[in-house]
Amino acid sequence: MDASVVYADLNLARTREPKHASPPSLPPDTCRCPRWHRLALKLGCVGLILLVLGMIGLGVLVLSLLQKTSVGVIGGEIGEGIIGDNQENNGTKTTESPAKLSCTKGWLPHRDKCIHFSQESNIWKEGLADCATKGATLLLIQDHEELRLVKDSANVKGSAFWIGLNHTWPDKNWRWINGSTLSSDVLQITGEAKKDSCASISKDRVISEDCASDNMWICQKKPTLVPETLCPDS
Q1: Where are the alpha helices (DSSP H) in 23-172?
Q2: What is the CB neighbour count within 10 angstroms for residue 176?
Q3: Which of 3, 12, 21, 113 has its CA 20 to 30 A from that of 229?
Q4: Most confident stretch, 14-18, 49-53, 93-97
Q5: Has residue 129 got a pLDDT over 90?
Q6: What are the φ and ψ backbone dihedral angles of 110, each rounded to 5 degrees?
Q7: What is any one of the record's Gene Ontology cellular component terms (predicted)?
Q8: Which distant-in-sequence residues (6+ apart) come within 8 Å of 117 by Cβ?
Q9: Least reliable range by pLDDT among 31-40, 162-171, 197-206
């Protein structure tokens, strides 16, 4: 009797024990995606968002550049209009043209130099000093054309003129005052070359003379740049 009661109580207790809840089962046709598929999907979404943002930024940049270009064109047209109006309004004013080389009064222009024939005579060193006070030097003859020009001018003036050429010692060479040696192809010197010899030029020859002799002289200097002003036709 007691044993049957105990067995019955144990069976009743077992039937009353709570059952553990099992996880709900998925339908048999449900697809389970691997983890790397989900990661790839997320990365794809991020890349798409970045692409959209980049396209928006590029569009804004292009629009800004187009606006700046249009403003510059309009500003240039306005500026040209203003300049044109000013030119029309100032039509009576003089306009500047490129500068030209000019020699001061009393100086003869020749190529890239201005040449001056003195009116007084003195020794060679005084002629050299006088040219220096004028911002010039004694003449250095460059070629046969310049030699012919100087001879023709000396013929008209009827005198001999010191040039920037003297006989130096102890090397016994004819040298120009810039230190270069005389080239025999340019001119030939008549007369004996001594220790204190300087060259003078006349209508037909170049002569070796004592530097203490009295002669006129020829100076040369660079021309000045003078802007030309032209009045437009009315």
Answers
A1: 35-89, 124-133, 144-157
A2: 19
A3: 113
A4: 49-53
A5: yes
A6: -150, 110
A7: cell surface
A8: 108, 153, 154, 157, 161, 216, 218
A9: 31-40
